[in-house]
Amino acid sequence: MAMKPALRPLVRRSSCLSVQARAISQCTAMSVSARWLTGLKATRSSYTRASASVLCHDCAKWGNPRIPARRWYANPGVEESAEGKPSTLYAFEDIQSLSTHPSPSRILIDVREPSELQSTGTIPTALNIPITSQPDALLLGPEDFEDRFGFPKPGTDKEVVFFCKAGVRSRAAAQIAKRAGYDKVGEYPGSWLDWAKNGGEAAKV
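Structure tokens predicted for Rhodanese-like protein (205 residues):
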């Protein structure tokens, strides 16, 4: 069926309007998308700046805190241990008196190794409990201790006075003794070197 000539212009005009509508729709969509992307970028940028601002503020507020320096105070005659219990410090004359006039309530202990005692001797009346090779000695029960060393374990009601070669191991032994329940603990800081320097007697082992 042939189309009437009067209707042909209307069809062409309708087609043009349809094409224009589609073009306008596409342009609108592109414009909205562009505005959305722009807004998203702005939001991200704003969020990033805000986050950085907060972090910087916190850094400035909580920057590296100043930790007060720890101070140590000397107390003549007393050594403060990590356990918070003081050790009594003994000088040469004190140890000499203890060796010359032994007391059942005060035990002198040489914590050096047996080979060292064989080479130099030891302070008279001192017991040998080597701290390096037998660090658990004072933590043993009475029976196990006597089986290992051949003499009774000093009771925790006694005062134990430690010495070594130069005072380092005796300090460690004092720490162990306090953990083992000894409340009366003494140290001879000068130890064997000080004893020998002052002409102290050496008992052969």
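The chain has six helices and six strands.
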